[in-house]
Design a protein that fits this description.
Elements lengths: L1 E6 L8 H6 L4 E8 L3 E2 L3 H9 L5 E7 L6 H9 L14 E3 L8 H13 L1 H19 L4 E4 L2 H6 L10 E4 L17 E5 L8 E5 L3 H7 L5
Parallel strand pairs: 1-2, 2-4, 4-5, 5-6, 6-7, 7-8
Antiparallel strand pairs: 1-9, 2-3, 8-9
Length: 215
Amino acid sequence: MIAGLDRSHLNSKTTLPSLKAKGITFIFFKATQGITYIDPTFNTSWQEAKAIPGLIRGNYHFFDPRFDGVEQAKHYLSLGVNYNVPGCLPPWVDVEDLVGSTPEETAQLNKWVADNWQLAVERLNDFLGYVKSETGRVCGIYTYNNYPKAYFHGTKFPDNPFWLSSLQAKCPVRYDTGAMPEFWQNTYRWQNSDQDGDYFTGSLDSLEKLANIHR
């Protein structure tokens, strides 16, 4: 498996060259959320990653089912990232629990998703469809197996790459296909830091092809 990281403004800003020197091959950054939010660290981190030879980069949108899927996709793509250049992974969408400012608000937000799950799935499919139509690339889904099983009543997404979060010792298989996910987030404390650690489950050649690198 090929080691990498993902991070947002919630993680410390360890320099990317130092992380690459410790053995990472790829890194994901949070880009946007909902229909207005942009991660304040994204642009600086993205430009830094682009300048580091051999570092494969990706980014993701945090999906909020309360908002229209196409509008969220437009917001995500408004950053102007070209997902078809060498070194860039396809677009991704983060699908997991919403978080409020209090435990009570968090519970209310996720109850809304549970109560409106069919609308949530429709909006997610709208997001996925719009991103594919605009970029020409199939959008991957970050989640953990129990989320779509519980909140989306097991709705399947067999045509989309998966990035599964699971802190168990062995990489899980997808709930919907039984296949290995493309990416596996396996720790929130990579090398005793506050960086989230990931693996690409295939070969380096497969990872490079996914990132538009053809040797």
